Amino acid sequence: KDWISFSHMSADRSVFPFDSWLNCEHKALKSKRTELNDDSSRYPQGIYSVRCTISRLLSITRGVKCYPEQIVIGGGTQILIQILCHLFPEGSKYAMEEPGYSRIYQLLKLQHADITSIELDHKGIAMSEIIKQDPNILYITPSHQFPTGIVMPISRRIQLLNWSSQAKNRYIIEDDYDSEFKYQSDAIPSIQGLDTFDKVIYMGTFSKSLLPGLRISYMVLPQHLLQSFRESEGFLMQTCNVLAQLTLQEFIDSGEYQKHIKRMKQIYSERQTRLIKELDRRFGKNIAIHGANAGLHFMCTFKTERSIEDILNQAEQEKLELYSIKRCCLTHYRLSKNPVFILGFANLPLERIEEGVDRLYRSVFGY
Ligand SMILES: Cc1ncc(COP(=O)(O)O)c(CN[C@H](CF)CCC(=O)O)c1O
Which of 79, 131, 135, 164 is a plausible cystine mate for 199, CB 3.0–4.6 Å? Predict the structure, then answer.
């Protein structure tokens, strides 16, 4: 039997419009844009016309207000964070959500940053903890908190903006990951769009809306951080492949991108509904599902005495790709009594859902 994947890290190649992507790449090559044979230190923020396209897209889809001059394109969120760190004041203290995106946490630790993790309440990162730990830079995922799926309400967003305005060196890094896919309600506009203090750095990626392998991500810098970026411009190289940038621009400007997102939303929404229905049918009251109103994964807690390790070992034998909440624990996230897993469905075809849930059942209960 072949593998079934509940991974939240992969996309489903079968629904990506390779032909139209190839068509856009062909057009980009045919136009023999000079940028293809330029040293990429000439535009360390990415190609200007591509940044214009992204800035238009962000204002339409996320209410982000920015000039193309504020955008920095990069080959992934991590490299952008590495560049961003050097723009903040020396000795900054970072805080991330617990549980959260551990790859960034590890990266910041690697950079010897002073980094702490802050618990969540039902509205997202807990204000009381922020006051207590007093960081000056927050890294948050308000659209669909990663991994719990909490959607941060406007009230908490305003609270955080006010917090950021109360000291010169305070900033909010808004990682708008997973914001493309909202099911029940419309997406809440970005915090960046509400920011009047110039304290929000907006981060986004095409890894989920297109393909993770393309490595096209971006950040929107507030004016004065852009200033310090410009000072280091001399040596900073662009880290995202130029042909990928030009192809992306064609793909968005031609309307293919919006068409693709619309189609993905239908496909993912149906998969999620079917998966949740199958989980309820199979597990009944032995499962609790959280954060399923958006994104390409949700979390679930199982009522079982079995340990996370035992469940993961049996999933391996069942050829079921499965990840637990543990991979998102930064420091001390207190593991609840019952095991918690992340169920991704971006790479789970409809016809494999029933078999996948069967394997999950056997992994969780051991028979
Ligand atoms: C919170 C968050 N912000 C950005 C990205 C995107 O980064 P990039 O592709 O480099 O632009 C991810 C990507 N998450 C990965 C898979 F979805 C890894 C999850 C895991 O490590 O559990 C993410 O969680």
Answer: 164
Is the predicted pLDDT of residue 183 greater than 90, yes or no?
no
Residue nearest to atom 16 of ligand 1 (CA): 9
- Res. 233 pLDDT band, cuts 50 70 90: low
How confident is the model over 95-102, as a mean pLDDT? Answer: 97
Q: Check if the beta carbon of residue 9 is closer than 8 Å to that of residue 295.
A: no
The ipTM, to two decimals, is 0.98
Cα dihedral 341→152→55→210 (10° resolution): 20
Strand partners, 72: 219
Q: CA 337, CA 282: separation in Å to the nearest integer?
A: 21
pLDDT at residue 236 in the model: 80
Instruction: Name residues contacting ligand 1 (CB within 6 A).
Output: 8-9, 76-78, 101, 103, 141, 146, 175, 177, 205, 207, 212, 217, 327
Q: What is the pLDDT of residues 217-231, one digit of tens each?
A: 999 999 989 998 988
When pLDDT is cut at 50, 70 and 90, the band that residue 237 belongs to is confident
User: Ligand 1, residues 79, 105, 146, 330: which to mutate, most atoms within 8 A of Cβ?
Assistant: 146
Please give the structure tokens belonging to residue 308. 């996370």
What distance in angstroms lies between residue 38's CA and the mean position of ligand 1's atoms? 30
Question: So what's the pLDDT on residue 11?
Answer: 82
* Cα 15 to Cα 42: distance, rounded to the nearest angstrom: 36
Q: What does R_g of the chain's alpha carbons equal in angstroms?
A: 21
60 alpha carbon – ligand 1 mean position (Å): 23
Q: From atom 19 of ligand 1, which residue's Cα is the shortest distance away? A: 9
Are 216 and 227 a contacting pair, CB within 8 Å? no
Residue among 47, 51, 8 nearest 242 (CA) = 47
